[in-house]
Amino acid sequence: MFGRLAGKQVPNKEYVVVPGKVNPDLQKEREKCNFNNLELTYFLDGGIEKYKDRKERENFFLSDPELLDDIPPELMSHEDQYRNGLKKACYLFKKLKELREKGGTIDNYRQLLGGSLGSAILKDGNPLALHYVMFIPTLMGQGTPEQCAYWIEKAWDCRVIGTYAQTELGHGTFIRGLETTATYNPKTQQFFLNSPTLTSYKWWPGGLGQTANYAVVVAQLYTKGECHGIHPFIVQLRDEKTHRPMPGVTIGEIGPKLGMNATNNGFLAFKQTPIPRNQMLMKNAQVLPDGTYVKSPSNKLTYGTMMFVRVVIVQDMASYLSKAVTIAVRYSAVRRQSEMIAGQQEPQIMDYLTQMYKLFPFLATVYALKFSSKWLWEMYNDVTAKIDAGDLELLPELHSIACCLKAVSTADTATAIETLRLSCGGHGYMACSNFPTTYGNVTAASTYEGENTVMLLQTARALMKAYTKAKAGEELSPTVEYLRPNRQFRAWDNTTDSIVEGFKKIAAGKVAACARSLQKGRDSGLAPEDAWNKTSVQLTDAAEAHCRAFITDRFLDTVRFGVNELSDPIKEVLVQLCDLYCVYWALKKSGDFLQFCGLRSDDIQNLQDWQNELLLKIRPNAVGLVDSFDLRDEIVGSALGSYDGQVYERLLASAMLSPLNSKPVHDSYNNSLSHLLRAKY
C-alpha cells in the first residue's frame, strides 16, 4: 500500500485525493434530490444579496494562505496551539480592519467569531474573540458617550485588546455572589480593586492568559462604606509597551481543557490595584467625585452583555450542528456496510432506518434552531432599541426566552453531535472527523454565560411570575399566553398542530404543578427559598417544556407563514422537517403527553409510524438538505464530510500528517522498544 520517498512513507498514487472527483454514491444522492438546493440556501442566508456577501466574505478570508494551517492544530502542543491561534487571530483582525474600511459591518465580526467561518479559520478557539464579542459590546452598552468616544475607537483599531472578566473561581452564574471588590476613595478619585480570597480570582475569561492588556472587570462596588452590588470597570492589566502585568495584577493561563485550547482562558487577581474614577462604566449607575452613588434605573441593565452573548450562542449552536450533521449525512451516503440481502452489494448505511433515526431528527433540529435564533435576534435588537429609549418593558421577556433557549439549544446540540459522531462508527472518533473538536466547542457552551440548570431556573422564575399574573387576570406576553386560566387547548388529533398545542398544554400543566408545590411548601412552614429549592427539579422541567413549546411553535409558524416565496418542493421538505422535529420530541416526551394531553397507547403507536414515514420521505433529499447549508470544506473541516465524498483518501492523507509517520522507524525504537525486544530490561 505504501511507497517510499526519501525515507518517508507516502501513499501510492491511487490512494490520494483527486481534485474534482466526486464519490459516485454521493453524486447519485445529489441527482435524486427533488428541489433546487441553491434556492434553499438563499432562503437560509436571508436573500440573494446576503448570500453573495457571505460568499465574498468567505472567499476573502479562506483563500488567504496565511489563514491556513500547515499542521492540524490537534497535532500541536498546547503552547503551539496558542501561538498559532494568536498569530492567525492577529492576521485575521488585520484583514477585518481592511474589510471595515471597505464598509463592513458588525455582522462581519460576529460571523467570524462563531461556529461557521470563525471555526474554519481558528478551529480550536480564538484568543481575541472576547475582545469583539464581550469587551467592545460592553463598552457600547454600558459606557457613557464620553467613555465610548474614548475607548471604542481604541478597541476597534486594536490599540488596546480587551476581555470580559466576570466569572470567579468560586462564583460563576451567581453574579451577585462575586467577591472581587472595587472600593472608591474620594480623596484620590480612584477605585481600588482587590481580590480578598482565593475564590475571588477571576477564572475563565478568553484571551485573559497572555493576550489581553485591558479587561472589563465586574466587581462589587463600595463607596462611603456601603456596597452597591456588581458594576463594570475598565482595568488595565498589562503595560501597553512591554505587556508586563501592571503593579498589583496577578495574571496567567488556566491550562488545557476539553476543547477551545487556543482561546487562552486565564486567571486574574488584584491587590489594591488603582484605576481612575472615570473607568467605571457609568451609562446606568454612577459614582460622583465625592463618592455619592447614583442608582441605575434598573439593575438588570448590568447584564446586557450576557444577554447579547446568550443570543449569539443559540445562533452558534445552529452553525455547529449544521456542520456536524453535514459530516454525518455525507459519510452515511458514502459508507457501505453489512448485507441487507445476502450476496448483494453492501448498502449505504443511510438506507438503514436506524441510521436515518440517528441523522434526520438533528437535521431538523438545525432548522428549528435557525428559526428560533432568528426570532430571538430580532427581539434582542428590538428590546435594545427600546432600552436606549428608556423602555424596559420587554427586557424580562427577552431574558426569559434567551435563558431557556441558551440552555436547551446547547444541551440538545451537545447530545446531537455525540449521536452523530457515533453514527459514523470508529471513524467518527478520529480527530480528523472534526467531531471531537466540534463537541469540545459545543459542550463548553453548556456552562459558560450561565450554567444550564441555573438558566432554566431563571426562566422558571419568570414563568412563576407570569402564572401569578395569569391568575390575577393580567395581560400576558405572547410566549406565555397559554397560561391563561380560560385558555382552551386544541384536542389531540395526531397532527403537528396538536403536538405544538400539546407542548403548550404540558408546559401549562407543569407550571401550575410547580405553583402548587411552592404553595404547599410555604403552607407547611418552609421559607420561600427552601420551597423553591424543594421544587427546583420540577421547575427546570417546566422551563424546558416552555422552551419546547416555543421552539416547535416557531418552527411551525415559519414553515406555515414564512416560506411563501419558496417553491413547492422546498415547502414540502421543510414541512417534513418540522413534522419530524415535533414528532421526535413528542415521542421523547411521551410520558408528558400521556399525563397532560390524554394520549392513549394507540396514539403513541401512530406517532412512531408517522416518524418512520417521515424518515423515509426525507431520505432522498438528505444530502440536498445539508448541501443547502453551503458549507465550504474548510468550514466542515472533516475527512468524512467533504463535498467530494473522498472519505477514505482523506482519512489516509490525514494519517500521513502525523509526526509519527515522518520516518519509517521512530526515534523511540532505539530508546525503548528495542531494549524490550532484546530482553534488556
Task: Give a short synopsis of this structure.
By secondary structure, this protein is α+β, with helices and mostly antiparallel strands.
Describe this structure in words.
With 681 residues, the protein is of the alpha+beta class. It folds into three domains: 2-132, Butyryl-Coa Dehydrogenase, subunit A, domain 1 (Orthogonal Bundle); 159-302, Butyryl-CoA Dehydrogenase, subunit A, domain 2 (Beta Barrel); 305-627, Butyryl-CoA Dehydrogenase, subunit A, domain 3, CATH 1.20.140.10. Helices cover 52% and strands 9% of the residues. It has 23 helices and 13 strands. The chain has helices at 24-31, 37-45, 48-62, 78-101, 106-112, 117-121, 129-142, 145-156, 304-334, 353-388, 395-423, 435-444, 452-471, 496-523, 528-534, 536-561, 568-588, 590-596, 601-618, 622-627, 633-636, 647-655, 668-677, and strands at 2-5, 8-11, 162-165, 181-185, 190-194, 202-203, 214-223, 226-236, 249-253, 266-270, 273-276, 286-287, 293-294. The strands form four sheets. Strands 3, 4, 5, 7, 8 and 11 form a six-stranded mixed beta sheet that branches. Helix 7 packs antiparallel against helix 9 (304-334), helix 9 (304-334) runs antiparallel to helix 10 and helix 14 packs parallel to helix 17. It is globular and about 90 Å long.
List keywords for this structure.
13 strands; single chain; 681 residues; Butyryl-Coa Dehydrogenase, subunit A, domain 1; disordered N terminus; Butyryl-CoA Dehydrogenase, subunit A, domain 2; alpha+beta; 9% strand; 3 domains; Butyryl-CoA Dehydrogenase, subunit A, domain 3; six-stranded mixed β-sheet
